[in-house]
Amino acid sequence: MPAHEKRPQLLMVWPTGGDVRVEMPSAPVGHVIRTYRPGDEESFLGLMAEGGFDPWDEAKLQFNMGKVIPEGWFFAVEEHTGAICGTAMCLHNYKDTTPFTGELGWLACAADHRGRGLGACLTAHVTARFLAAGYSLIQLRTEYYRPAAIRIYLKAGYVPHIEAEEVHALWRDVCGQIEWKFTPERWSALVEARHG
After folding, report:
1. Does the CA dihedral 59-61-64-70 come out positive or negative?
2. pLDDT: is 152 or 99 the higher one?
3. Who's near 6: CB < 8 A, 6+ residues apart?
4. At what angle do helices 147-156 and 118-132 cross, to 10 degrees?
5. Residue 1 has pLDDT above 70, yes or no
6. Could you write out the DSSP letters of every residue in the chain?
7. Closest by CA position to 13, among listed 140, 129, 178
């Protein structure tokens, strides 16, 4: 993945709380969604590398595995080969700053399986698992240069949390890029209603 200008991460929140059902799309034809099994680590690390995430080592892998809530690490699998082609995690209190926060983390899909709805399916599974576990404060962080993922999150119902002018401008640019309506006042109202 090419180098990108250093910009703030984009924070998004699930605004509607634990009493709202998540729209759960069906897995694309030829795929199933399952939870972690011992031995999935190698395929996961391959997806992280393919997705252009910062390099992973054993310490980073163990840290993240230690944050996953029970039955909260999801994999998209190709049925006829058993190959892992997507992943996402339910991470508890990922940055050790907000004790009851769940964070959707490390959503990634193999390049030859993108555009089929796997990302939306994995996002829904993570969100539903958090809500079933009693989390009402759910969030995620992403980068401005991941427009496909941002669109998935927006369509799933996550709302941008804009805390600074630089982020406001960044969201305006991202929304223009993905042809999504830029509505910061509406987003702020939803965030304040949920977290205020």
Report:
1. negative
2. 152
3. none
4. 50
5. no
6. -------PPEEEE--S-TTSPPP-PPPPTTEEEEE--TTTHHHHHHHHHHTTPPPP-HHHHHHHHHHEEEEEEEEEEETTT--EEEEEEEEESTTSSSTTEEEEEEEEE-GGGTTSSHHHHHHHHHHHHHHHTT--EEEEEE-TT-HHHHHHHHHHT-EE---SHHHHHHHHHHHHHHT----HHHHHHHHHHHH-
7. 140
Domain 10-195 has CATH 3.40.630.30: yes
Mean pLDDT to the nearest integer, 170-188: 94
CA atoms of 6 and 172, how far apart (whole Å)? 17
Look up residue 93 and give its two tokens: 């209190």
> What amino acid is encoded at 8 in this protein?
P
CB 150 within 8 A of CB 2: no
- In degrees, to the nearest 5, what angle opens at C-alpha 76 toward C-alphas 114 and 89? 100
Q: Which two tokens stand for residue 4?
A: 């990108």
pTM of the shown model: 0.92
Is residue 40 a contact partner of residue 106, using CB atoms and an 8 Å limit? no
